């Protein structure tokens, strides 16, 4: 009987972990992608400015 409760507890723990982790991961990805794109755009603009000045 105790084994069943341990299995149920493990399953509930995994589900709660996913419920917490998935929004956090999505938020991190949602923040990281625009930040990376802005970073790449900034480098591109700096390179263009350097080439224009030369």
UniProtKB/TrEMBL annotation:
Name under which the protein is recorded: Uncharacterized protein
Chain ranges passing through the membrane: 7-29, 35-53
Keyword tags: Membrane, Transmembrane, Transmembrane helix
